[in-house]
Amino acid sequence: MAKNFSIENSKSKLDDVKTNLESKKKELKNLEKNKKKLLEAGTELESSSLDSDSQKLIMEYINDALDDNAKKGEELSEKMNEDFSTIEEITQDVDNSLESNQQNTSKLKKTKGLLDKIGVGGRIDDALSELNENKKNLGDLRTALKNTEKELSGISQKLSSLWSDNNSSENVYVNQILMNIEQFNENKKRNIENNLMTEYNIGKVDFIDYDIEVAESVGEALKEAVEDFPDLHINYIGSINTQVKGIRDVLVKHYINEINNMEDINWSEKEIEKIAIYNADDFIEYAGLNNIEGTIAWSLNIPEDINDELLKYNGIAINEKYASNNKAFKNLKINEVLTKNKPIGCDTPRSTVDHELGHEIDKLLGASEDSEIKKMFNEMLQCGKARDELSEYSKKNINEFIAECYSEYRNNPQPRKYAKNVYSRLIKMRKD
């Protein structure tokens, strides 16, 4: 018999597990019911007359709800691990006790055989009977443990189906709906790209890394900007990540050509490429284009004297981290406004686009050299209330001051003094 082992205590522990089991069966039933309802909602969505944006929004909600339902299933499954551990522990004790019982029974039988020869073997019949009864009780407990473990395994398998049956017909169908919506949005992004390039004087627009809502924000901001500043021309709009990769590729090609045009060079193609890549990466680092982790967006202006081919990448780019995730982007902007780092109303991805457009308009008009705008910037600094009258970020330099003013003017329904006055001055400079 295992030390400190008690059949009664083990039965009590097993009863607790069985009680938990009934509770978990009910939870599982509710989770399965929730999943069924959500899948049915996804199916009904396909035949609805809702537009694609609405379908996507609802589908995303359904998927979030399915994920939440699956998470609850995982949490329930994790709790069951405690029950499995209890059963395993009791089973081990039972197995040890059965082994001990068998050893003791074997010893007693041998002893009985010897005692029978002298006619006193009956004295240990009671002990053998007790061991046999103990063996039966242990066997019954072992069977109960096995059956309970089987039930737990069944529930565990059903719980896992809440998140692991991606190949089921229902989920395939839901995924197909999402794919259709995604394809629609991809087509929509292509249309926005083409429209911006053909109608709004943009050299290259690349929304491959963009969330559709961020792409639409860019389109709206550019339309208004070009309407007020018709001479505005931007070479590139896309993600910073794609932009920097493109710049690097141009530079590598440039340095390869330069090396190949040098006299008395006997390097292999691999060696030339290695040197070209080193120089390209050195330029990227020198220009500060490699450190983009903390950058939200920028208006890039590569000087003309470096490489003509690089000029096609001058323009507005957003970090892929935010361009691809409208929700995360918006949360970031909300926090910036709450901390007064950004102007009132500039709590959307659109406001970032407008900020960068402010830089482009500044470059177009030479606004940062304008005496009146300089006067307004200095006045704001001297009053010491930039944080309350525009934004904390506007204090950085006159270029950021102009961009912040333009962004607030476009996004605050009631733009404040500096935003209104700077915008009015920009319009006057355009007309002049």
Show the helix and strand layout.
Elements lengths: L6 H40 L5 H65 L8 H40 L4 H31 L2 E4 L6 H17 L5 E6 H21 L8 H18 L10 E4 L14 E4 L1 H4 L2 H13 L10 H17 L5 H13 L2 H4 L8 H14 L5 H15 L1
Parallel strand pairs: 1-2, 2-4
Antiparallel strand pairs: 3-4
Helix pairs in contact: 1-2, 1-3, 1-4, 2-3, 2-4, 4-5, 5-10, 6-7, 10-13, 13-14
Neighbour order of strands in the largest sheet: 1-2-4-3
**Shape call:** elongated
Radius of gyration: 37 Å
Largest beta-sheet details: 4 strands, mixed
Taken as a percent bin, the fraction of beta residues is under 5%
The N- and C-terminal alpha carbons lie at a distance of: 102 Å
What does this protein structure show overall?
- This protein is mainly alpha-helical and 432 residues long.
- The protein has two domains: 159 residues, no CATH class; 247 residues, Collagenase (Catalytic Domain), CATH 3.40.390.
- Helices cover 72% and strands 4% of the residues.
- Helix 1 packs antiparallel against helix 2, helix 2 packs antiparallel against helix 3 and helix 4 packs parallel to helix 5.
- It starts with 6 loop residues before the first helix and ends with a helix.
Keywords, please?
432 residues; mainly alpha; Collagenase (Catalytic Domain); 2 domains; four-stranded mixed sheet; 14 helices; 4 strands
Summarize the structure.
With 432 residues, this protein is mainly alpha-helical.
